[in-house]
Amino acid sequence: MPGDDVLTFTPEQDSDPVKDAILKDNAEFVRALDAAIVAQNPRLPALEYYTAGEGAVAAQDWVQSFKKAGWSVTGTVRYTDRRVSVESKDRASLTYCGDESKGCTKVIKTGVIEHTKVTKNSYVAYGVQVQRSDKGVWELFKIASTRGADKCRP
Question: pLDDT tens digit string along 6-19?
Answer without folding.
Answer: 999 998 888 899 99
